Amino acid sequence: MVLNCKHVWGCISAYLDDGLPPEMRDLVQKHLDHCEICSVILDSTRNILILTADDLVFTLPVGFSERLHARLDQEMTG
What we know:
It is a single chain. By secondary structure, the chain is an all-alpha fold. It has one domain (5-77). The protein is built from four helices and no strands. It has helices spanning 5-16, 22-34, 36-53, 64-77. It is elongated, with a radius of gyration of 17 Å. It starts with a helix and ends with a helix.
């Protein structure tokens, strides 16, 4: 069985949690060994988990939320 990227993306969380059966883990690992995009997604997901597990709290700059929502609205409407 050969996994495509979308299938691997759906397995990233379980892969990081060691929740995949050994055969599936091996297939995901083989894909990651050859796919730069999926490897970046794996590393990014791992980094997000590390950052969100940290107890540090960041204060956002004044107006950040409003700018973020305006930008999201702009991107979504075209």
